[in-house]
Write a structure and sequence with these properties.
about 70 residues, mainly alpha, 4 helices, globular
Length: about 70
């Protein structure tokens, strides 16, 4: 699964839209996240690890690195 679909799946599971998470990211960080800017990052596959961590944190998840 690519990053875009992975994040969209997480959002869907939690009943939140791209716009909704962009609004939460803007409130949490003070940076200018919009639906359009976040969707662009997902389409270009340029979302940063820090942004992904923020999304998962806002959704109530944590990221774990597990050895294969």
């Amino acid at each position: 699964m690519d990053n875009k679909n992975y994040i969209k799946s997480l959002l869907s599971l939690n009943g939140i839209t791209i716009k909704g998470i962009a609004d939460k990211m803007r409130e949490a960080s003070g940076l200018n996240y919009t639906r359009k800017s976040l969707y662009g990052k997902l389409n270009r596959n340029t979302i940063t690890l820090a942004e992904f961590q923020m999304i998962t944190d806002l959704l109530g998840y944590k990221i774990e690195v597990v050895r294969k």
